[in-house]
Structures are given as structure tokens and as C-alpha cells.
Amino acid sequence: xxxxxxxxxxNVDRGRAMEFVHxxxxxxxxxxxxxxxxxxxxxxxxxxIEGIENEVFEFPLDGETFYWTWKMPRAWEAKAGKVTLxxxxxxxxxxxxxxxxCLVPGSSSIRGKFSLVSVGTxxxxxxxxxxxRGKVVLATGHPSLVYPLAVEKxxxxxxxxxxxxxxxxxxxxxxxxxxxxxxxxxxxxxxxELGAAFTITHRAARDIRRRLSRGPxxxxxxxxxxxxxxxxxxxxxRIPGEDPDGPVVIAHLCHxxxxxxxxxxxxxxxxxxxxxxHRLIAEGKLPRPSKxxxxxxxxxxxxxxxxxxxxxxxxxxxxTGINLDMVGENQEITKGPLIVExxxxxxxxxxxxxxxxxxxxxxxxxxxxxxxxxxxxxxDFSGGSDHYILSDPTIGVPTTMIGHWPDLYYHSxxxxxxxxxxxxxxxxxxxxxTALWLVSxxxxxxxxxxxSLINCAEKRLSAEAGTASPERMSLLWAQRREGAxxxxxxxxxxxxxxAEVDQGFAELARKFGIEDLFFTVGGPxxxxxxxxxxxxxTFFASNPDGHRQFVERITKDQEYARGxxxxxxxxxxxRSFREIMEFLVAEYPSINADDFRELFLALRExxxxxxxx
Length: 613
What we know:
Layout: H1 2-11, H2 14-24, H3 34-50, E1 53-61, E2 66-67, E3 70-71, E4 75-85, E5 91-95, E6 110-118, E7 136-139, H4 143-153, E8 158-161, E9 196-199, H5 202-212, E10 217-228, E11 230-239, E12 246-252, H6 260-282, E13 293-298, H7 302-310, H8 312-315, E14 318-324, H9 331-334, E15 338-341, H10 351-365, E16 376-379, H11 386-390, E17 399-404, H12 422-440, H13 446-464, H14 470-485, H15 494-512, E18 525-528, H16 536-542, H17 544-556, H18 558-570, E19 572-576, H19 577-587, H20 597-605, E20 609-612
Parallel strand pairs: 6-7, 7-8, 8-9, 12-13, 12-14, 14-17, 15-16
Antiparallel strand pairs: 1-11, 2-3, 4-5, 4-10, 6-10, 11-13, 15-17, 18-19, 18-20
Helix pairs in contact: 1-12, 2-6, 2-12, 3-6, 6-12, 10-12, 10-13, 13-14, 13-15, 14-15, 14-19, 16-17, 17-18
């Protein structure tokens, strides 16, 4: 397999990939906007030049259409946005024309002078003892918790967020250490009729709070923006194989400018890999694949949900997926390792272990001299990108994510092309191309792949032996076994794969003393009334006061958030609540099963799950 990695590494054009990155960062790529459309048209133009088969799928962004629990937001376009502190010498706090990331997408037009009030975190009812109606508020809390209270409930006209997502002291990612960054606050689907929002630098926020301590302040706010019924667009490209099914490579194209690593890097590398395979086949260096390779560029999550809902005929052809999200980082600058994120235990797949093995071989070969600080890690499923949608068992496309985490400049104005490494792009491109070749072409390395999957499982079991519970060891073994079995669907002789995997895992069971795991039978059995992951904003909106506790817990407790996702994935009409909880505790040992009883009751009251008689 190392020979193939070297072959692809020599053929990946890192210069072209970087040119794509530099082009994409010029576009303010908010879904439904002219900037997003221009970025998609740019990539489509590159595919057209190469003669690569492609099409554009469109779906409504109208604030009305539902795909399962996902309400498609309205499209949004901004022309201007500015906040000025009205002092003797007025101070510009943020300006969309200079830092487009500072204007929160979904903001509506607003013009005027307003009193400014600091509400602390802005996430608690007690933060609003002062009247904020018709005023501008400054808040430090999570935007998804601040906005419903400040604007929707208490009538604030605009919010200034002094907030940095994913602060991480271990790498120096804090507001105090990076006081001049503007953060990306995400998009509020319902902000349009009510108000506007900005993110501001921590330095500016500190100055405002100091001035407020001495007396009242006034700001002038100007926003020229429109929420409208528009369209979302997904670019689909194919390298046709003998069979229509095969792997999918997905990258989200959206995000504010610059967004170099997140996710111009992933979108650019997906385009480079598609061009690479097309050229190698055209030049006779590779035969036509046996499986079709599909490439998707999407508005993150919403585009993937829309595609799964409206084009199930296409999505059912995807045997496995690779999500490229933040793949080009210069680790010495951004401070986070390359990560390979596995699929959830509820939908096992071979791809994560295969990519991890390829990276191990690459690093061990010394093929490229890497910086001493360079690292990669294989991690369990976390979600947060398009693999989260595809890996839901109701969609059924087990998708591995490749990215970097943590990242010093994540979702900020500092995510610029100088933080992108062309060498990192080439390494990821070569490894992903090798994995796609092992899936989509017939070859004599099947036994090597099977051996790598068994070794991957043995390595993980060895790391957990002696500390993990018998239930966790058994579930881990079964999950890795099912993942290895999934490689069989890509081969002409699947029974050969199944037999060799079965034999290898039987030996692992004997070595680690693993017995069959039987979950407790009995208790209520639930099934979902929807497909795809639950869109938490829909759940929250159905009962804002009652469901707020779950949203707050998700924003503060990543383990709980992962457990919630997996609990919903496991709710399939066949498992009892008790079985689901036993599975969860085995997968996430720190989880308290009692924490999910109230959640399931709330889901049932919201008619999102129903008890099976």
C-alpha cells in the first residue's frame, strides 16, 4: 500500500490545490448568497475545463421547507454592516467591508442610534434585569443561548457577541491571548424579522465595558442586508465506474471569508482529487474504476440533508464516505494534529481504520521529512460536520472525517491562507486517493487491507484491555468486526472478505477473552418519527423553556452531546430504552444513563419518537 501512497503523492498537484484555496477565500461563502454561488461556479468551471461529469442540485432556502426535522433557512445577502461607538471621536467597532465575518448571517437591515447595555453572559433570565428592549446588548455567552433571550424574548434590537467558540488554553486559544480576532457566530435562521447581530473583538469589548462603568454609551448601527426566499446549491461530480455505486467524498463549501482551512482547504482538495483521478485515467496510468467515485460540495449539513431527502436514489449508491473538513493546516501555526474521526459505533465502517493504517505506514516510511511537531490521531466519532448527517443509520452512509483539531484560528478572521500548508494538503490527498483506490479498483491487496483492519482492532483492544469493562471490550470488538465486514461490499468476492475477517476476529476474541454481549431485554421500545439527525433548533423551538436545559447541556458537555446523538441514532424501533442505555454506557463510560430519561420523555412529548407496541 505504501507504493500506492508514493504514486499518488507524486501526482497530487499541491500548487493547483493551493491556487483553489486562494481563489475560494475571496468569496464570502454564506449559503444562498452570491458569494457561495460564485465559489460553486468557480469549482464547476474547473471541473468543466477538465471534462469531468458534473451537475448542480438545487433546493429551496425559503424559511418554510422542512426535510424531516431540518427547516431550511432563508437565503441571505449583505451589502454593508457597521457598528460605531459614539464618543467624542467615534470608534468603529466592526465593519463588514473589512471583516465580513463580523456580521452574523441572517441579520436584517437596521439603521439608527441605540443605547448600549452589557448583560454579562446573556444566557440567564437574571441577566436581563435591565430593560434591553430596543437597545443593543453586549454579551459573552454562547450565541445560540443569548439570541433567543436577548432578541426574541426581551426585544433587543441588536447583539454584540464577545464570544470565542472552542476556547482551548492548552494551545493558547483564548480571548485574552487572541484579543483582536473576530469570531464566526454561526447563522440564526429566524433572526431576519427581528434584528441584527455582530461579533466583535475581545479588545473592543473590554474597552466598551470600561467605558460603560463610567457612564451610558450609545452606538450607531448600520446593516444593509436581506433575508429572502432563495436556493441552496450542491455541486456533484463523478468519476464513472463499471458499477454506479461506490465511495463519496464530501466537503462543505460554505463559511464566511476568509475560511481558508475551514473549509476552502477541504473543498479545494476534493476538487484536486477529482481532477487527479480523471487525468490518471485519461492518461492510461489507471484503468477505469470498478466503482463510481462521487464528489460533493455542499452548504454544510443543510445541503447534505436536502440531498438525502430529495435524491435518495443517489445517496443509496454511496457505500462509504470521506468528509474533508479543515484538511490543510500548518500544524506549527494552528497547533492541532491531523485527525481521522471514525464513524459512530451504531454504524461501523472500515474506512477510518484503513486511513489510519495508511497514515501510519506513510509516517513510518520516512517518505517525507515531517516537522518534529507533526502529528496525527485517530479519534472516535464526534460529529459537527457533514459526516454527522451521512453516518446517521437512517441515511446509512458510514462516513469518516479527516480534519484538524484543535485549531488556534478556528472560525475566526485569522483563518487565512498563510495558515494552510501545501505539504499537508498533498499528504492528505495522497492518503485519501490511496483509500479510494483500494475501494474503487480491483487489486491484489485485499488480504493486506483485511490484515490492516484486524491489526487496527487489535491495537485498540490492547490499549483498552485491563481498564475497560467487559461490556465495552465486547462492544468494541463487535463494532470493529462489523466495520471490517463492511469492506466486503466493495469487492467482487465478498465472501472471501467475510471469511477472513471472521477468522481474524475469532482469534482476537480468544486472545482478549471476549464473549458475546447480550443487552438486557425488556422495557419500552421507541422508534424515531424522522430520518437524519435531529435538528436541535427545531427541538428547542417546540418548547423553548422546557428544552433549554438540553441545549445548555449540549453546549457545555461534549460527552453528553455525543451521547445524545448516538442515543437518537440507536432509536430504531427494535432496541428498548434499556438496551440503548447499556450500549451508550459501554461506548461512553462517563455517561449517566439517568441523564437521558428526561430527554426521551421530552422527545416523546414533542412527537419526535413514539413507543412501539
